[in-house]
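Quick check before the chapter quiz. The format below is the same one you will see on the exam, so make sure you can read both the input and the output lines.
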Amino acid sequence: MSGSSPKQDLLQGTLDMLILRVCAHGSIHGYALAQKIQLASREALKVPQGSLYPALHRLENRGWLEAEWKPTETGREAKFYKLTRVGRRRLATEEEEWLRLSRAIGLVLKST
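Here is the expected output.
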């Protein structure tokens, strides 16, 4: 993830969790996935192609996503990704870890 400020940079592994979360809602191609993350974050998170596609391939290779080529709304062929059963379990683990970490960071911020 990139942007004009350090606040837009995400912790390592966070992109994977965001991709899995978006794919949990159904089959989606890469460009639409990046747009959903950007819109859901109110434009705060922009996922460059150079980060998105390697992450998608990594998640597919791990068995967390499966992909198939289909036509997009514009008729162009694109690879659509969807969450696997293993990916759904991984997403639950990632979300639990993120919530635990964010609570811990919140405690530190409140205590100092």
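If your answer matched, good. The two ends are 29 Å apart (CA to CA).
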